[in-house]
Structures are given as C-alpha cells and as structure tokens.
Amino acid sequence: MNKAVRKAVIAGNWKMNKTPAEAKELINAIAPLVKDAGCDVVACTPFVDLSAAQEAAEGTNIQIGAENCHWAVSGAFTGEVSAQMLAAMGVGIVIIGHSERRQYFGETDVTVHDRVRAALDAGLTVILCVGETLEQREQGITNELVALQTKIALGGVSGEELKRIIIAYEPVWAIGTGKTATAQQANEVCHVIREVIAQLYGPEAAEAFTIQYGGSMNAGNAAELLAQPDVDGGLIGGASLKPADFAAIVKAATEG
Predict the structure, then answer these.
(1) Which three-class secondary structure state does DSSP give residue 203?
(2) What is the pLDDT of residues 222-244, one digit of tens each?
(3) Confidence (pLDDT) at 4
C-alpha cells in the first residue's frame, strides 16, 4: 500500500444482513472505533438499510454505499434499483460485479460493464469486483481472466471517470469460505490489474489507482495483506459486521 500516491479505502460489504434498526446499531458501534482513521471508511448496505445507515453515519467519517445498481435509468425491472435512485438518496458509492452477483444472479462481464456505465453517469463512485474461480486458478488463467474482466468493465470509461472507480480483486474461491489468498498471491493479481490500468490509461493513472483485496480479509491477516505494495485497501465481508474486527482492519490500513 502506497498512501503517498493513492488513497487507501476499507469498505464493508454487509451483503444480505441487518434490518434498518440493526444497521443503525452497527454504524453507531463502528463510528467511534474508526473516527481517527487514516483511510477512507465505507459501509455498503442492503437497499432497505441505506436511509438508516446514512442517518447513523451523519457527522462521522463513514461513507454509506449500496451493494448493486441496475443499468437502466428506469423501466420494467421488478425488484431492481437504479443508480439515479441511489444518487437521489445521497448515496455516493456502489459495489458492482461482486462474485455473488455473478454466481447467483446471472451477472456477466457485459452486464457488469453496463452497470458501471450507469453508475458513472449518475455521478457515483464504483467499487468494481473482479476475480477468478478455484478451477480457473488451477487452470493457470487467473491473470488473463482478471485482465479481461477489467478491460470489459472499463470499456468506454474516460480517464477522468476512472478517478471514480476502485477495483476490488476478489478471488471467488476465497469469498465467504474462510480461505484467503496469500499476501503474495493477492499482490500479484493486484499488480496485474495495475498493469492493465497502465496499458489503458497510462502509468501515472495506474500509480494513482486504488486496488482493494476482497477475499476473506480479516483482523488477523489485514496487516500482512495491506503491507503489499499493490494492495490499497479491502472490501470486507463478514468482518465488516463485527465492529472490533472491522476497526482492526481500518487500523491496519491507517498504520500501513
């Protein structure tokens, strides 16, 4: 992590957890623990929790984000939420392309691109997720696959718009499994992503670009992962629901 040239970001992904009342309680518990953070702190919550989380986070250094958005402005898409709806709520950040969306809800590289485009058009900052399955890693195609996912998602994105994108490398085999890529494995793929950014936008843009690791980062392994030169933060799943654990990761990012 090189905070001298790029921003460190620790973002919680709550997934399908917490009622609005529980969301307030969790934000209230986290806020005093991260108030002196030397990195950006984000909590991405289910749609139904956004207003409650925003209310609880008011006056703190915690930014509230969403976990997904649709590619259309409006239309006959029952159950979906548009980027414009999020923006109208004052939400500034959205996760797109999470492996669980790809695995369970039919997301493809193309629909991820379309959602990224919609979020940028609505003025949002995007946490874009890329990563390989265990089978793909064992086939030795991790680098090619992650590079392809990155290039497709960023199609048509300008250099100025790139400043509103963070990429989270999330090996699918490490999501919610308790397995974690080694620090060296995580850094290797984050470096591949940075090289793709350099190819597309130039070395200066690549050097300033924030890349998170998102595969079961926790209080115990965060310091080692965040010490890697190309790992600039984390997209945190289960540990983001535990105030002390999440605060420990934020502390590791602050000190790293």
Answers:
(1) helix
(2) 999 999 999 999 999 999 999 99
(3) 78
85: CB partners within 8 A, 6+ apart: 69
Catalytically annotated residues: 98, 170
* Cut 0.90: pTM above it: yes
Give the number of residues written for the chain: 256
Residues paired with 93 in a beta bridge: 65, 125
Whether the pLDDT of residue 73 is over 90: the answer is: yes
Strands (E), 98-193: 125-130, 165-169
243, 29 in Cβ contact below 8 A? Answer: yes
Residue 84 and residue 109: Cα distance in Å, rounded?
Answer: 22
Which CATH number is correct for 9-255, 3.20.20.70, 3.40.50.2300, 3.20.20.140, 3.30.70.120?
A: 3.20.20.70
